[in-house]
Amino acid sequence: MVPPVSDPPQFPSMPRPSVNPWRADFPVLDQEVNGRPLVYLDNAATTQKPRQVIEAISNYYLHDNSNVHRGIHTLSARATSGFEGAREKVARFLGAAGPQEIIFTRGTTEAINLVAQSWGRANLRPGDRILLTEMEHHSNIVPWQMLCERTGARLAYVPVTGPEGLLDLSDLDTLLGGGTKFFAFTHTSNTLGTVNPAADLCRRAREAGVVSLVDAAQSAGHRPVDVRGIGCDFLVFSGHKMCGPTGIGALYGRESILDAMPPWQGGGDMISRVDYDKSRWNTLPHKFEAGTPDIAGAIGLGAALDYLETVGRETIRDHDAMLAAAAWNVLREVGGLTLLGPEPGLHPGGRAGVVSFVMDGVHAHDVVTLTDRCGVALRGGHHCNQPLMKKLGYPATSRASFYFYNSVEEITALADAIGEVRAFFSGH
Ligand code: C6P
Question: N or C end: fewer C-beta atoms under 10 angstroms in the chain?
Answer without folding.
Answer: C
